[in-house]
Write a structure and sequence with these properties.
The complex is a heterodimer of chains A (326) and B (249). Chain A contains 13 helices and four strands. With 326 residues, chain A is mainly α. Chain A has two domains: 198 residues, no CATH class; 74 residues, no CATH class. In chain A, strands 1-2 form a two-stranded antiparallel sheet. A two-stranded antiparallel sheet of chain A has the order 3-4. In chain A, strand 1 and strand 2 form a beta hairpin. Chain B folds into two domains: 162 residues, 3-Layer(aba) Sandwich (Rossmann fold), CATH 3.40.50.300; 77 residues, no CATH class. Chain B is 37% helix and 24% strand. Chain B contains nine helices and ten strands. The N and C termini of chain B lie far apart (38 Å). The chains are: A mainly alpha (326), B alpha/beta (249). At the A-B interface, helix 6, helix 7, helix 8 and helix 9 of A face helix 2 and helix 3 of B.
Amino acid sequence: MLRPDREFWVNAALVAGLVMAPAIAALMNEVYFINLSSRVVIIAMAAVGLNLALGYGGMISFGHAAFFGLGGYVAGISAHHAFEESHFLDLIPGSDQMLLIWLAAIIVAGFLALFIGAISLRTKGVYFIMITLAFAQMIYYLAISIPTYGGEDGLSIYVRNNLFGLDTDNPLIFFSICFLWLMISLYFSHRIMGARFGAALTMAKLNDMRLATSGIEPFPVRLTAFVLSAMIASGAGALFADLNGFVGPSMLSWHRSGEIMVIVILGGVGRLFGPIAGAIVFVLLETFIGGITERWQFFLGLILLIVVLFANGGLMGIATGKARHD
Amino acid sequence: MTKAILRIENLHKRFAALTATDGVSLDLYPGEIHALIGPNGAGKSTLVGQIAGSLQADYGQIFLGDEDITTLSVAARAKKGLGRCFQVSSLAMPLTVRRNVMMAAQALTGSSFRFWKPVNNDQELIAAADHAIALVGLQARANDPVSVLSHGERRQVEVACALALKPKLLLLDEPMAGMGSGGSERLTNFLETLKHEIPILLIEHDMDAVFRLADRISVLVYGKLIACGNADEIRNDPTVREAYLGIDE
């Protein structure tokens, strides 16, 4: 094992910060800040998902809100049917079990991503950005047009879903669930990027002709990464719906896609812990500057501008002093 | 009579009004270097594209051994043993030499859809890559990123990538281009030994290298092959002198 370098300590500090914040908030009985920490963790997880496509795979998806929101809707619709004791499409009963909901969210989003990716990945550059946006907008308007699930008003989850009989209403317990998920998705990203698949995906991003000339088809590699990326984002979406006790079309909107993208870029494209750094800065700005002025996004824009112009490798590039991973 | 490794039959490719490849037939036998020369705009790159699979021929057929590969993708052809080096180096600049070469070895030694085992500990891959790197004499550079390599060294990496595929033949698109005379000399010597193991279809501008290396030379002008023969035959062919060498000299 190598001696821990600066990047290791930066990563450790980020994770420690994520754990300390809700712990301190709990000691001070500040439920709001525990939930805020959960929000950071969930949004970071969505960004970890996007980072796999955008950062590692070079696929600039402007439609990841579709997967994030879909995860949310799976949670919301499932809880809705469980609450009403009715059936989805008169066929599938609802469930308030998180494990089932996560599984369903990940599978449904995976298939949607397979479909969207199979079409979108035939294009490149700005066309890819636009076509992923177009698909996400279609899902957005679909959600709005279904009154059964709240249409424009969204859908409330009256009772937080269950996991192994834990008290998921306890904000610290819910935070822990989210945190565990974030760590799992980070570890998963780390492993696959270090494996053969990651090597192929990196090459697909850097030079896809080289990949093809090496005897490996770039398209299935990209498509697989896109699907995995969507699955992670949808898991985050399901948690987000449970955190808020609500899911609405805003989770599917292109603003949301943009936010997740901003977080990835802010943190550092293709940096394993970049999404955490990005999500912390994003949510803090949104909460604290947003508390002072509605124009908080001005400051977000300013920071993003500075990072993009002057910091090669995002916030993680600044913190670690290295523009990219070794 | 030995069988051709690569056989191209009556290949045609048109771009609107321009016929870039006009009924080209060509073959490559074990143990030889077959050079393809032609003036600028003769359609060499278009032909290379069709052989490598980045361009689809309008009609005609390409065989690798007995197998018809005309409609296969670039990756499928590479995996079947068509090693290619680009005219302009096409490597992943930020990655090390070894990582670039490992990519080619990866296709040969199993699936790329392995998601868990770290590739950096994959001794089989590393050994295959290091073997190919040693063949081109770049051991000392294996851990350097391609971006810090000289032009000539990048060329060697390209060749190493192609060799890591354990190819049945090599398609070399102007390997000497932009090389110093020393590097060019070294590469020429290397190709001369290599051809006994792997036959080479060489597309090259450097006439000295072509006449020295090639067992056979084909001349492409306006998409058509106007001559094919050994160095002496080509040097003395009047149509070739008129179309090509005359202009150059």
